[in-house]
Amino acid sequence: MTYAIIGFGEVGQALASAFARMDMDVAVATRRTPDALASQALAIGGSVRPKTLEEALQADVIFLAVPFLEHATVAKALPNWQGKTIIDATNAYGVPVDALDGQPSTAAIARAFVGASVVKGFNHLPAGVLAADPRVKGGRRVVFLSSDHDEAVPQVAALAERLGYAPVWLGKLGEGGALVQARGRSWAPLIFQDLVKAD
């Protein structure tokens, strides 16, 4: 299984830190050249590998860590996303509900990434918390997962476990998943909730 992070701002770098902590290889890419990311990536860890966007999109599991409105541009990079798992770590705070046809923001992402299995996850924690060691207070920091593609969830949950987190399944995007989906200028109830599951 291969992994990539698209977007290398605060959230993308926090996710890269999680991979580096476990010495797991992960490609990172933006619209910038790999050389432009090299020093930041090296500072995080040797397993963080800058790639072109085209190279990074060859990964099996792809974290989407770009500003929400940029997802459509990324989606156009491939004609079909069949066989890919997209982990949506974006937040659509400030995006008008009408612009999403009243649907959860991840549903819009799922429509854009034709053929992909899309899982909402790793989006509810501030980047600084996400970058920190998830093993705290005698337990593991919780990450919430939701999806309308049930078959993809065990794979993402297993990855979360490997990275040291405690995955918690919320169900479908429009059901329990609504607890981590920003709507307009309202944050969902579980966003920013730093919870720890005891070992």
Automatic annotation (TrEMBL):
One of its GO terms (molecular function) is ferric-chelate reductase (NADPH) activity. GO terms for biological process: copper ion import. InterPro entries: NAD(P)-bd_dom_sf, P5C_Rdtase_cat_N, STEAP_metalloreductase. SUPFAM superfamilies: NAD(P)-binding Rossmann-fold domains (SSF51735). Keywords: Oxidoreductase. It holds the Pfam family F420_oxidored. The keyword Oxidoreductase applies. It comes from the Bacteria. Transmembrane segments: none annotated. One of its GO terms (cellular component) is plasma membrane. Residues 3-91 form the Pyrroline-5-carboxylate reductase catalytic N-terminal domain. The keyword Oxidoreductase applies. This is NADP oxidoreductase coenzyme. It comes from Massilia cellulosiltytica.
